[in-house]
Amino acid sequence: MKKTFLLLATLFMYFSSITAQNLIYPLGQHLDVTVQDTSLESYRIDIETSSPEAITYDWYLIKNTIPNTWDYSLCDWQTCHISIPRTASMKPITLGEAQNGIKGFFSLSIIPGANYGSGELIIYVHDSEDLNRGDTVSMNILNPNTTGIEKVTATSLVSIYPNPTQDNITFSNKSFENLSIEIYSTIGTLVIKDVSLANKTNTINLSKLERGIYFVKLLDKNGIMKTERLILQ
Fold first, then answer.
1. pLDDT tens for each residue of 144-162
2. Domains in the chain and their CATH numbers?
């Protein structure tokens, strides 16, 4: 344990002393954000070079204090991680892709719900061929309890099953209200839009979607939202 802590501390000090070279980050490379409970939130940081080039980005996790009571996933260029690894590599970006505007990125999607608190994510990202050619990116996330009271809403009376699923999901609507749903990919792409849940039981076929992780948003007439993570096997 002491050796592991010493290694992490050494890495952190080393990465903190590295000077960025020829990698460009937008002003939002260090994000301080406040989220609303029960909502799916996504935050993205883009990474690119000063001029288009073929490149592969490697990255190291320096710090992750996101509460384990939050549902979250981290996506980079062409890969999504349910559990954030200590080290990873993005898929290579060709010269042609870079010239067409393809960038490296980190996209963090979270569902904190009523689990109030805060978390911080710090990553060092660099050119796979040069450890010194890189920089840190970070996100500070706060989910405050602004009311101190958890509201009972129509969406809290809806259950989703089975989860995980292979083809279909069923919504059991015990609220007797007309609800609607939307389904998003882990990078925030809307894949199913404005489906009405007017009946007590509603089934949706998902066989045309790629296998992976999705987020289901439910919305009642008052605009109250509930978000759940869905695994499509």
1. 876 554 555 666 678 888 8
2. 2-143 (2.60.40.10), 154-232 (2.60.40.10)
